[in-house]
Write a structure and sequence with these properties.
The protein is of the alpha+beta class. Helix content is about 20%, strand content about 50%.
Amino acid sequence: MKSGIKWLVLFFVIFLSETSGLYAQELAGKWKAEILLPDNSTSIVVCTIHQEGTNYNGVLTISSPIALTVVLESIQFDGEKVIIQEGRGAILFEGKFLFDKIQGVLTWGEMQFPLLFYRLTPGVFPDDNF
């Protein structure tokens, strides 16, 4: 009986260590959200995340009327919590990884915007040519 429990525990330890790497791989890719601006207009936000070993980097692009592209120098991910920051710290996103979505708040200066990023796949938004 003790032998069976040891094998079961060993299986779960191996399974958890293997799947934690899968979550990290899932974060890398292209994500898309709509942001509601203070003037009640909307803009598209695209976040492209690259994984290099255990480090992440990427680019955040906000479409018109703002038309802004920001290099993301700090991306932290622990399997659930995502923290994305540009180099100067003026833009910060803190959210929760939900496999096909990332939900959180984008802080830009003193303004905060709730964002729900969807993995960029055909059919998620009508305009996937961004």
